[in-house]
Design brief:
about 75% helix, cell membrane, disordered N terminus, ABC transporter involved in vitamin B12 uptake, BtuC, two-stranded antiparallel sheet, single chain
Length: about 350
């Protein structure tokens, strides 16, 4: 395959990625229009803030999942690792009496450690990502229950927290504008994730591994190291998710976490990241996360039963994956014809 063919392939991938983001954004606007016409309560300020706040946790988890899926991997543990991180925050600041800053750092470190274990299991032990992260999902859930004694850990009413409640992290930061801090944390995390993906060697190698892992290895790249780093980064975002959800609930709820991984993966896929690896954007993931939140919120406002909400969401994910498959087939055909 000559240089012109490779250039054609790259141009095709860039064009398809841009098209996918445009389609996702168009879908988001379409949902706003449909639900606005269907209910007068949808476009109210309180409901918009509710959508923004509901997107924060899933959005942060999806950011980490984006890096993993770009490498053609999967991480089923992001939800329960988030819960374990929140539990560790509760233990550190409530039971051990540490300052809140150290407690939050400990929660993020817990997520990083879990992600590193995932990465080493996948890269060094050669366990398939689905199995490795499934095991971590179960282990993190069990540890959350064991460490907490199967009871919620409340952040208020203890010497370490009294006078500076965790929920203050979600207060408004702009005078006169009731926008929760967590929304700014989400967008800040997205900016950092975008810079890592687009401007650092970690991001470049993530794309390279997802596009062709063996070719990347033969070019002299330490694939095992960078793959472990990607999973560790996903764990850090899960730890940040634990900070946000703990702040929202002002407690660590050890029974939470299951199901969040599916919403995060759905947001990533809807946003245009290919499950085959080698393609994806942070902007697309954020759009996908908002699509999930708007869809859930709109269906709830229309009093659609929760079981049917799950059916609709599942259908949208299937359509998104099928569209990705068609797009990849078209790219491969164009690349072949160019060669």
């Amino acid at each position: 395959m000559d240089v012109a063919a490779r250039a054609t392939g790259r141009e095709s991938r860039l064009h398809s990625a841009a098209t996918q983001k445009i389609l996702a954004f168009g879908g988001l606007i379409g949902l706003f229009v449909v639900f606005s016409l269907a209910s007068p309560y949808f476009l109210t300020f309180d409901n918009m803030m509710g959508i923004l706040l509901a997107t924060t946790v899933n959005g942060v988890l999806a950011l980490g999942a984006t890096f993993v899926i770009i490498t053609a991997g999967i991480d089923l543990s992001v939800g329960t690792v988030m819960t374990l991180s929140a539990v560790m925050i509760g233990v550190l600041i409530t039971n051990w009496g540490l300052p809140i800053s150290l407690g939050l750092l400990g929660g993020v470190a817990t997520g990083a450690l879990a992600g590193l274990i995932n990465g080493l299991t996948v890269s060094k032990m050669k366990v398939p990502p689905f199995v490795a992260t499934l095991g971590m999902m179960m282990a993190a859930k069990g540890l959350s229950l064991v460490i907490s004694g199967s009871k919620p850990i409340y952040f208020t009413g203890t010497p370490a927290v009294r006078g500076l409640a965790m929920d203050s992290l979600l207060g408004s930061v702009i005078p006169g504008l009731d926008v929760p801090n967590a929304v700014f944390y989400l967008f800040g995390a997205a900016i950092v994730a975008g810079l890592i993906l687009g401007r650092t060697i970690l991001g470049r190698y993530a794309f390279a591994i997802g596009s062709n892992e063996e070719a990347t290895r033969l070019s002299g790249v330490n694939v095992d190291f960078w793959k472990a780093a990607v999973y560790m980064l996903a764990g850090i975002f899960s730890g940040l998710g634990g900070v946000i959800i703990g702040s929202r609930l002002n407690s660590a709820q050890p029974a939470l976490g299951a199901g969040y991984e599916l919403d995060a993966i759905a947001a990533v896929v809807i946003g245009g990241t290919s499950l085959s690896g080698g393609e994806g954007t942070i902007l697309g993931t954020i759009i996908g996360a908002f699509i999930m939140s708007v869809l859930t919120n709109g269906l709830r406002i229309l009093s659609v039963p929760q079981e049917w909400q799950m059916v609709v969401t599942g259908g949208i994910v299937i359509v998104a994956v099928y569209a990705d498959r068609l797009r990849r087939q078209r790219e491969d055909r164009m690349l072949f014809e160019g060669g």
